[in-house]
Design brief:
- This protein has four helices and 46 strands.
- The strands form ten sheets. Strands 39, 40, 41, 42, 43, 44, 45 and 46 form an eight-stranded mixed beta sheet that branches. Strands 30, 31, 33, 35, 37 and 38 form a six-stranded mixed beta sheet that branches. It has a four-stranded antiparallel beta sheet with strand order 2-1-28-27, with no helix packed on it.
- A hairpin with a 4-residue loop joins β24 and β25.
- The longest helix is centred in the last third of the chain and has 18 residues.
- It starts with 22 loop residues before the first helix and ends in a 5-residue tail after the last helix.
- By secondary structure, the chain is mainly beta.
- Helix content is 7%, strand content 44%.
- The radius of gyration is 41 Å and the shape is elongated.
Length: 685
């Protein structure tokens, strides 16, 4: 039932207001934080009272004394939980709300009434929810993304805020509260509700016999009323019949019931109908409230509390009440304080939780029940880690926590080798690992920066995926520059982890490809001049020639591919020709190497090119003499061995050669008629 000051964003997922921070500054912090990361989300774990199935574990009529996972809360990840008076709500990351537990008065908001709902159900017609609250005596509240508020349940004292009360005020489905706009936070107490507006003022409605509405009288109100004299409010909290407000200067105000010192001003006033200052608090960053006690988290990570202490809910080792705030002994490094009924929980900056107070039904998750379960000082709750939300409630005896996950990146920077403009590098990969304990949702991975267009995602298994605990996903990025010079960009992940992932820096350098030289006109074909060498590459590649080449007219076509880095060099075509041996002691024939053509190349990593090697008539004759085998290519300037090629004529050349050979054979073969004519001629002619 206690209100939360602001959403967590720091290393543990927490943002708290600085002692002198103004409302405007806090709002700007929230805008910046929400742009950098998705809201933390995770899995629900439960312990405590479960008679009506309010733990949402599918069971009922039981106490759960140790933590257990409750996977029925879903289907998407959980963001916030709220519990009170035997029913529970969980806000999911998709903006919907699930409910479970006692539903006799429609207080689960499901559109029907029933004694028990043990399996969580999505509240129909409720979407775009930013915050959910549960009030004693069967009321639920939801703050929507358009900063309006819906309510449902039983509103006998006007706690639904819809203008109805007594027996006419029962809504088993969410209904808008008229007149509530620009709402930043909602809380629900015993038979009343409150809303913090964006202008720093507060409105309240419902039960008011103890002055908990703060409007200066003791009359209940079925529509929202302004709390008197309050401004510059940055957070609110509600106990059973006592209300609290945190101001932008770090002070705390209280009003309503003060019979047990819960006003924190040194008195036991039964009814305080307008706000009064809580004594001795100057630098509070967050507030919370139990059934009849108040709590303030200070800027140094310590906690002060005051009020009723009959169940050791003040954590000072005693059961004596305090009418003024006192430090909780031995408690430090607190990121968030949460009070629930007669127990309290401190979430530490490392994500673990200390609990103290009433544990009769297992709400301290220490394996104990009844009187043996009471803890008079802060005691670690075993098994809780990375906690992002603990359910709150004034008359509730259950612990419902949401554990978020953490994640790691395989690297925070990628550097690409020099690349020519228009070319594309090999991809490099960033891996995201979910280190547990819950699943994580990755709603986006974005390339940004002035040169973001020079980097492309060639593969992505993260975007829009939910990654189970212990699993990974990856994003592969390649460098494809469109302009010359140094290039840089960032890859940013938007996830539901409690630790925002750092941005990955990307960098590379692009060089302009030299223009192809213009060949000099000449009657006879000349070899193509070598292109201007490129600047020295980062890393040296290996050029590979194809195993076969084509002969197209006077040109040999050789395909060369560059792997492993940039390649610059030249190649030679060499024919092995058999020649007669000369000399006194030489006989027969020997092989002679003849260079028949040359060509130069300059290739980027991964690129390929078909080189045209011009062959003279003499060179082509040597090839014909050498045959289709025995032709070799030698490449200089890179790491490659001599490769043997099979030189084959192109399709058109093959047809032409076959036609010429057929013509020659026909000319050489005499016809039968001419042969016979010679036989018939007389001798001597």
């Amino acid at each position: 039932m206690t209100g939360e000051i602001v959403k967590w964003i720091n290393a543990r997922g927490a943002i708290v207001a600085a002692a002198s921070t103004t409302l405007a500054v806090i709002a700007s912090m929230l805008v910046l934080a929400s742009a950098a990361t998705a809201a933390p989300a995770g899995q629900v774990v439960v312990s405590g009272y479960n008679y009506y199935g309010e733990l949402g574990n599918g069971e009922g009529n039981e106490y759960v004394t140790s933590l257990e996972a409750a996977p029925l809360w879903g289907p998407s990840l959980a963001v916030q939980a709220a519990t009170s008076d035997y029913n529970s709500y969980v806000l999911l990351s998709n903006g919907t709300v699930q409910a479970a537990g006692y539903n006799e008065y429609g207080n689960d908001g499901l559109g029907f009434t029933s004694y028990t709902v043990a399996v969580p159900k999505v509240i129909p017609g409720l979407s775009g929810v930013s915050e959910v609250a549960a009030g004693a005596d069967y009321v639920g509240l939801a703050r929507l993304s358009n900063v309006s508020v819906d309510s449902w349940g039983y509103g006998y004292y006007g706690e639904l805020g819809n203008g109805k009360n007594y027996t006419a005020a029962e809504e088993n489905s969410p209904t808008p509260i008229a007149g509530l706009q620009d709402v930043k936070q909602i809380v629900a107490g015993c038979n009343y509700g409150m809303a913090l507006l964006s202008n720093g003022t507060v409105k309240a409605w419902g039960h008011n016999s103890d002055g908990e509405l703060g409007d200066g009288n003791a009359f209940e109100a079925s529509t929202p009323q302004s709390v008197s004299g309050l401004s510059r409010v940055v957070a609110i909290a509600s106990g059973c019949y006592t209300s609290y407000a945190l101001l932008s200067d770090g002070k705390v105000m209280a009003w309503g019931s003060g019979s047990y010192g819960q006003l924190g001003n040194g008195t036991t006033t039964q009814r305080q109908s307008t706000p009064v200052e809580v004594t001795g608090i100057e630098d509070a960053t967050q507030i919370s409230a139990g059934y009849e006690s108040g709590y303030a988290l200070l800027s140094d990570g310590s906690v002060k509390d005051w009020g009723y202490n009959g169940y050791a809910e003040l954590g000072d080792g005693t059961i004596a009440q305090h009418t003024e705030p006192e430090l909780v002994p031995g408690l430090s490094g607190v990121a968030k304080i949460t009070a629930a009924s007669e127990a309290a929980y401190a979430t530490l900056t490392n994500g673990s939780v200390d609990g103290w107070g009433y544990g009769y039904y297992g709400e301290l998750a220490n394996g104990k029940t009844q009187a043996a379960a009471e803890e008079r000082s802060p005691t670690p709750i075993a098994g809780l880690s990375n906690v992002i939300s603990i359910a709150t409630g004034d008359f509730d005896y259950a612990l419902m926590a949401i554990e978020g996950s953490t994640a790691t990146l395989s690297s925070t920077s990628l550097t690409f080798a020099a690349q020519t403009v228009g070319g594309q590098s090999a991809a490099q990969t960033i891996t995201v690992k979910n280190t547990g304990p819950a699943a994580i949702a990755i709603s986006g991975d974005t390339l940004s920066g002035t040169d973001a267009g020079s980097f492309i995602k060639s593969a992505d298994s993260c975007q829009g995926q939910t990654i189970p605990a212990g699993s990974t996903c990856s994003v592969s990025v390649a460098f494809k520059p469109s302009t010359a010079g140094a290039q840089s960009a960032t890859l940013t992940f938007k996830t539901s982890t409690v630790n925002p992932l750092p941005a990955v820096s990307l960098s590379g350098k692009a060089t302009q490809l030299a223009p192809a030289p213009t060949p000099t006109p000449t009657p006879a074909p000349t070899p193509t001049p070598a292109p201007t060498p490129l600047p020295a590459p980062i890393g040296r590649g290996t050029a590979h020639a194809a195993r076969s080449a084509k002969l197209n007219g006077a040109d040999a076509q050789v395909r060369v591919t560059c792997r492993g880095g940039a390649c610059h060099g030249s190649l030679k075509l060499v024919a092995h020709v058999r020649a007669k041996a000369h000399g006194k002691h030489h006989h027969g024939k020997r092989l002679r190497e003849v260079v028949i053509g040359k060509a130069s190349f300059s290739l980027a990593k991964g690129a390929h090119q078909t080189l045209l090697v011009h062959l003279s008539a003499k060179d082509r004759a040597l090839i014909a003499k050498a045959g289709r085998h025995g032709l070799r290519v030698r490449v200089t300037g890179v790491d490659i061995k001599t490769a043997t090629l099979t030189l084959r004529p192109s399709q058109n050349s093959s047809k032409h050669n076959r036609r010429r050979r057929a013509t020659r054979r026909a000319a050489a073969r005499p016809s039968m008629r001419s042969s016979n004519a010679r036989l018939d001629r007389p001798p001597g002619r």
